[in-house]
Design brief:
The complex is a heterodimer. By secondary structure, chain A is of the alpha+beta class. In chain A, about 55% of the residues lie in helices and about 15% in strands. In chain A, strand 2 and strand 3 form a beta hairpin. In chain A, helix 13 runs parallel beside helix 16 (about 450-470). Chain B has helices spanning about 1-10, 15-25, 35-45, 70-95; strands spanning about 10-15, 50-55, 60-65. The chains are: A alpha+beta, B alpha+beta. The interface of A and B includes residues 26, 56, 57, 67 and 69 of A.
Chain lengths: ~900, ~100
C-alpha cells in the first residue's frame, strides 16, 4: 500500500520537477544558515562558520542526486534525459542519423520481407481446420501427386487411415454470364471436398458427395469469395443463377468464406466445380482409364490416432492389391505422404531451400549493416571521448554513460526498424497482389501477421544492441585524467584489421552484384532484339480455346478457318496464321519421333524429341519464319491427304544428315504413323531464350486438330490499334468465346520472367550491397578523420595542400575501395557465366558493362567519403590547436 | 529515529532533526547532515510524515516536518518490532554456555 502510494507520488513528482528543486534548494540554504549561526555562536569566524556548516552538510550535488532519485523515477527520468540528449545529437548531425536509419531500414526491411514470404509459404499451414493432420497421397516413385480416377476411388474405398480422401484438378474455363465472356480458373473437386475439409459456406450452400451421380451429373459452381467480389460485386442474389461454363449451363450454389482459397497455397482459383463434370470442363475425361493419371491431387485428414507411418503401410497394402489386380495399368505401386500446401515434394523442398538461403542472406546483410553502424558509432564515441571523459571526471558512472550510448543506438534502431517494417509491409502488399503471369491465378496471401511484426521488433532490438555494443570497450577504457589533460590519444593503426577486411569484402560483393546486374540488364536489352526464329514485332496474338465455347473436335477446323477469314477483313491486317501454342509461350510440348527404319517404337529407340507445333498454312508468313527448303502447308494437307510435316534445320540434319536430304524423307511418330517431310524452316528458340538449339516440327492443323487456337495476326501498322476491331470481329463470330488479346512481345513476358527476375533481384541485392559499402566506407573514413583530426590540423598548419590532406585522411578508404572493386569486378566476370544460363547472351566482355561498373563504384566511393572529406578539408588548424 | 524525534519534539525543521539526532546519539552518528533530506522525502512520500512551510526560531522560512496519524501507527509498530528484536538479541547475550546443558 505504502509502496504504491510512493510510486504514484514519484510519478507525479517526475512531472513537477522544477518546483520541488526549488524547495530543496531553500531547505538546504536554511539548513546551512542555521548551522552557520550555531557555529558563529560557538565562536568561529563567519567564513569558517559557513565552511564548517557546508562540510558538515556534505556533498550537495551527490545529495541532490540522491534526493532526486528518491523523489522521482530515476530510470524513466534518465531515459527521458537520454532521449532528449540523443535527439539533440541527431539534430546536430542529420547525415549520420539519416545514413544509420536508412541502412537499418533497408536491412531490417529486407529481413521482414523475406520472413513475411517464409511465414506465408512455409510456417503458416493451409487455412483449413486442423491443417496438421492434412496429407497428400502420392505415388512413392514420383514427386508429382497425380493419380488415375479408378485408383483414387480404390484408395477411397479401401483405406482405413483417412477420414475422407478428396481429389482435385485445375483447369481454365470460359465463363459466360451474358456480356463479355471471360476466362477463369477452376478447381475441379470431388463432391466431398468441402465437407472433408470442414469448410462452411459463406453464402448459399456447397455441393456434397450426395450431388454426385456420375459424369456430368452435378453442374454446380461454388465461387471463391474474391471472385464473387470482383466479378459479381458481392451480390447475394447470384446464388441460384445459371451461368455458362464452356457453354454448358452450371448453377451457382454458394460462395466460399474469404479466408479459404483452395488447397494449394499460391494457386487461387476463381470457383469450384465438381470433378464429375470434368468432361465439360476439360473437353475430355478419363473416369474409367486406370492408366491415365490425370487427377492432380488426392488429399485427406488422417483419422484421429493414426500416425503417418501407419497410413503409409495401409496405403501400400492397397498398392499391393492394385499391383496384383491391374499389373498392366498400375505396375509397381507404393505410396507416400506429403504436405499439400506446396504440392508436397514438387515445390516444398526447393521452396524451403530457396527461402532459407534468402533468409540467411538477409540475416548476413543485417549483420554486416550492424558491423558498419558499429564502426560509425565507434567513430562518434571517439569524437565524443572528451565529453565522456569530462562526464566521468565529474562523477558520472560508466554505466550511466553506456546507458546513454545504448539509448541512442536503440532509438536509431527503433526508427530504422519502424521505417523498414513500414517498407516491408508495402512490399509484401505489392507482392500479394502481383500477378507475374496474367494467365495463371498465382496469388499468395502475404498478409504480414503478428509473427512478422514480432520478428521485425526482435531484429530491431537485437541489432540496436549489436551496434550499440561496439563502442562499449572504448568507453570502459576511457581514462578521464589522460584525456582531459592531453586531448584524444591518437594511435593510428597501420595494420590490416578485421574491420578493413570486412569492408573490403563488402565492397567486393557489392562490385560483384553491380557487375552481374549490369550484365543482366544488357542481356535483357539484347534479348528484346535477338533472333528467335520468328519476328514478334507488329504481331498481335489472339488466344482462344475453342473447347471453352463448346466446339467438339469435328467443329474445330471449320471454326478456325472462319476465324482466320474474319481477321482478314480487318483493315491493316497482312497475314493471319494459327498455331496451337506459340513458341516462347507457356506450353512448349515435345514428342518422340523415330527414324523410318525403326520398328520397335520404345521410348529408348527414339531418334529425337522435337518440339511439336500444330499450325495453319499461313503461320510461317505470319510469324516471319523463313522457309529454307521445300514448301509450307496448304489447305489441301487435310485428313484425306498423306501425313506431312515441316521441320527445322536441326531436325533435318539430325534425322536425315542434311537439309536437302530431308525433303521427301519419312519419319515415324510414336503411334507408328509415317510422316513425310515437305519443308525445312530456320531454327529458333522454343522453350526459353537461353536453351540450346533444339529440333522442332510443325504439323498441319487439318491433320491433327487442336482446340488451343492462337491467331497470329501480322499487320502493317501498330497492332495495338487493331485490338478492339479484332475483339469485335471474334465476338461477332461467337459471342461466347473468351479471347485474350496481346502483342507477341507481351506474350513473351513469360519467358522473359526468369531473366527479368534475375535482373531485378540482382539489382535489389546490388542496392543493398552498395548501401552496405557506403556505410562501411563512410564509417571507416569518418572514424579515421576524427581520430586524426589533430594531425590533419597540424598538416594544414604546416602548409599541406588539399590533395595531401585528403590522401592522409582517406587514403586507406580509397585503397580498400580500389582493391575491393577490382576483386569484385573479377569475380563478377566469373559469375556472369552462371548468369548466362538465365539471361540471354549475358556476357561481361562488354565495354559498356566494364565502364559502368567502374563508374558506379567510383560514384559509390565519392558518395561515401564526401562527408568525411569535407570535414577533413574544413579543419581549421587555429581553432583545433587552440582547443587542444 | 526521525519518527521518534518528531514524536518527542513535535513539528521540527530539517536542521532541528539533524541536530537532535546528533545530540541524542552523543555525536556518534554525525554523518553528513545532507543525507537526512532524501530520507525525509522518502518518509513523506510514504505518508508517515507531512511537511509545510513555517517560520523558524529566527523568523525565517523553514520547512517543518510533523508526524501524521499513519506515522504514529508506524512508529508504534516499529517500536514494538524493535523492542522485540532487541529483547531477543539481549537474550542471546545473556545466555551462558552452562544454561544450554
Amino acid at each position: 500500500m505504502t509502496s504504491l502510494r510512493r510510486f504514484l507520488t514519484r510519478l507525479l513528482n517526475s512531472a513537477t520537477r522544477r518546483a520541488r528543486d526549488e524547495r530543496l534548494r531553500e531547505e538546504i540554504e536554511e539548513h546551512i544558515a542555521l548551522q552557520t549561526e550555531e557555529n558563529l555562536r560557538a565562536g568561529l569566524s563567519p567564513i569558517e562558520a559557513r565552511r564548517q556548516a557546508m562540510l558538515k552538510f556534505g556533498g550537495v550535488e551527490a545529495m541532490k542526486q540522491d534526493y532526486r532519485a528518491e523523489r522521482g523515477l530515476p530510470l524513466i527520468e534518465h531515459l527521458l534525459q537520454d532521449l532528449r540528449f540523443a535527439l539533440r545529437l541527431w539534430r546536430k548531425s542529420p547525415s549520420f542519423t539519416a545514413v544509420a536509419v536508412v541502412t537499418l531500414a533497408m536491412a531490417i526491411g529486407a529481413n521482414a520481407v523475406v520472413f513475411g514470404v517464409l511465414n506465408a509459404l512455409i510456417l503458416r499451414p493451409l487455412n483449413v481446420p486442423q491443417p496438421e493432420s492434412l496429407y497428400e497421397v502420392k505415388r512413392a516413385d514420383t514427386k508429382y501427386p497425380f493419380q488415375s480416377y479408378p485408383d483414387y476411388l480404390d484408395l477411397c474405398d479401401r483405406n482405413r487411415s483417412f477420414d475422407a480422401l478428396i481429389a482435385n484438378n485445375f483447369a481454365p474455363v470460359g465463363l459466360y454470364t451474358g456480356g463479355n465472356p471471360s476466362r477463369a480458373w477452376v478447381y475441379e473437386v470431388s463432391g466431398n471436398y468441402f465437407d472433408a475439409l470442414g469448410i462452411q459456406s459463406y453464402v448459399g450452400r456447397f455441393f456434397h458427395s450426395s450431388d454426385d451421380h456420375g459424369p456430368n451429373s452435378a453442374p454446380y459452381i461454388v465461387l471463391t469469395h474474391a471472385y464473387w467480389h470482383t466479378r459479381f460485386q458481392d451480390d447475394h442474389r447470384v446464388v441460384g443463377r445459371t451461368v455458362q461454363v464452356n457453354k454448358y449451363p452450371f448453377t451457382i450454389v454458394g460462395v466460399a468464406p474469404p479466408e479459404f482459397q483452395g488447397t494449394v497455397l499460391f494457386f487461387a482459383p476463381d470457383f469450384f466445380v465438381p470433378l464429375v463434370n470434368a468432361e465439360q470442363i476439360e473437353g475430355s475425361s478419363f473416369f474409367n482409364a486406370r492408366a491415365n493419371r490425370w487427377v492432380f491431387m488426392t488429399i485427406g485428414h488422417l483419422r484421429a490416432g493414426v500416425t503417418p507411418e501407419q497410413a503409409v503401410a495401409d496405403l501400400n497394402s492397397i498398392g499391393a492389391y492394385l499391383e496384383k489386380t491391374y499389373p498392366k495399368e498400375d505396375g509397381k505401386t507404393s505410396f507416400s505422404l506429403a504436405r499439400p500446401g506446396l504440392i508436397g515434394d514438387v515445390l516444398g523442398p526447393p521452396m524451403r531451400a530457396f527461402l532459407a538461403a534468402l533468409m540467411l542472406l538477409a540475416a548476413l546483410i543485417l549483420l554486416a549493416a550492424c558491423a558498419n553502424l558499429g564502426s560509425l558509432f565507434a567513430a562518434r564515441a571517439a569524437d565524443r571521448s572528451k565529453e565522456v571523459a569530462l562526464r566521468l571526471a565529474l562523477g558520472a558512472g560508466r554505466g550511466r554513460i553506456l546507458r546513454q550510448l545504448f539509448t541512442e543506438a536503440m532509438l536509431i534502431s527503433l526508427l530504422g526498424g519502424a521505417v523498414g517494417l513500414w517498407g516491408s509491409v508495402v512490399v509484401l502488399r505489392g507482392l500479394a497482389v502481383w500477378q507475374p503471369f496474367s494467365q495463371f491465378p498465382l496469388h499468395v496471401a502475404l498478409n504480414p501477421d503478428a509473427n512478422v511484426y514480432g520478428v521485425a521488433l526482435l531484429l530491431t532490438i537485437a541489432s540496436g544492441f549489436l551496434f550499440g555494443a561496439v563502442p562499449v570497450r572504448q568507453v570502459l577504457h576511457t581514462n578521464p585524467y589522460e584525456i582531459v589533460k592531453s586531448g584524444t590519444i591518437t594511435r593510428v593503426g597501420r595494420r590490416i584489421t578485421v574491420r578493413d577486411a570486412l569492408i573490403a569484402a563488402q565492397i567486393a560483393i557489392c562490385a560483384v552484384l553491380v557487375t552481374s546486374s549490369m550484365v543482366a540488364v544488357r542481356g535483357l536489352f539484347r534479348s528484346l532484339h535477338g533472333n528467335f526464329g520468328f519476328d514478334p514485332g507488329n504481331v498481335m496474338l489472339l488466344e482462344t480455346e475453342l473447347n471453352m465455347a463448346g466446339y467438339g473436335s469435328d467443329a474445330i477446323p471449320a471454326m478456325q478457318r472462319r476465324m482466320v477469314d474474319a481477321m482478314h477483313t480487318i483493315q491493316g491486317v497482312k497475314v493471319v496464321g494459327v498455331i496451337d501454342d506459340p513458341p516462347l509461350g507457356t506450353g512448349a510440348g515435345r514428342t518422340l519421333i523415330f527414324t523410318d527404319q525403326t520398328t520397335d517404337l520404345r521410348p529408348g529407340n527414339a531418334a529425337a524429341a522435337p518440339f511439336i507445333y500444330i499450325i495453319s498454312p499461313e503461320y510461317f508468313d505470319a510469324a516471319s519464319t523463313a522457309l529454307q527448303e521445300g514448301r509450307a502447308f496448304t489447305w489441301h494437307d487435310d485428313k484425306n491427304a498423306p501425313r506431312v510435316a515441316v521441320v527445322n534445320r536441326l531436325f533435318a540434319r539430325k534425322l536425315f544428315g542434311s537439309e536437302g536430304n530431308a525433303i521427301g524423307g519419312y519419319f515415324k511418330r510414336r503411334d507408328g504413323t509415317r510422316v513425310q517431310v515437305v519443308g525445312v524452316v530456320e531454327d529458333g528458340k522454343y522453350h526459353d531464350l537461353t536453351e540450346d538449339p533444339s529440333p522442332a516440327m510443325f504439323l498441319p492443323m487439318l491433320q491433327s486438330p487442336s482446340s488451343d487456337t492462337w491467331l497470329v495476326v501480322r499487320s502493317n501498322r501498330d497492332p495495338q490499334q487493331l485490338a478492339p476491331a479484332m475483339r469485335d470481329t471474334l465476338h461477332a463470330l461467337d459471342a461466347g468465346l473468351p479471347v485474350v488479346i496481346q502483342t507477341w512481345n507481351q506474350a513473351m513476358n513469360v519467358v522473359q520472367f526468369p531473366p527479368r527476375m534475375a535482373t531485378i533481384s540482382l539489382g535489389v541485392l546490388g542496392v543493398m550491397g552498395a548501401m552496405l559499402s557506403i556505410t562501411g566506407i563512410f564509417g571507416m573514413a569518418a572514424y579515421s578523420v576524427s581520430k586524426r583530426l589533430r594531425e590533419l590540423g597540424i598538416r594544414i598548419a604546416l602548409g599541406a595542400q588539399r590533395k595531401e590532406v585528403l590522401q592522409a585522411a582517406l587514403g586507406r578508404a580509397f585503397k580498400l575501395l580500389a582493391f575491393g572493386s577490382a576483386a569484385g569486378l573479377l569475380l563478377g566476370i566469373l559469375a556472369s557465366r552462371v548468369l548466362a544460363s538465365i539471361v540471354y547472351q549475358a556476357t561481361p566482355r562488354d565495354p559498356l558493362v566494364l565502364a559502368g561498373v567502374v563508374v558506379a563504384m567510383a560514384l559509390l566511393g565519392l558518395l561515401a567519403t564526401w562527408i568525411p572529406a569535407q570535414r577533413a578539408l574544413s579543419v581549421d588548424p587555429a581553432i583545433l590547436l587552440r582547443e587542444e | 529515529m526521525v519518527l521518534k524525534t518528531l514524536d518527542v519534539l513535535g513539528p521540527q525543521h530539517g536542521y532541528g532533526i539533524a541536530r537532535r539526532i546528533e545530540q541524542i546519539s552523543g555525536d556518534v552518528l554525525a554523518v553528513n547532515q545532507g543525507t537526512l533530506y532524501p530520507v525525509l522525502l522518502k518518509l513523506e512520500q510514504e505518508g508517515v510524515i507531512a511537511s509545510e512551510w513555517g517560520a523558524s526560531e529566527n523568523n525565517r522560512r523553514a520547512r517543518f516536518y510533523r508526524l501524521t496519524r499513519e506515522g504514529r501507527k508506524q512508529l508504534q509498530v516499529e517500536t514494538q518490532d524493535w523492542e522485540q528484536t532487541a529483547a531477543i538479541i539481549a537474550r542471546f547475550f545473556e545466555v551462558k554456555a552452562e544454561d544450554l546443558t
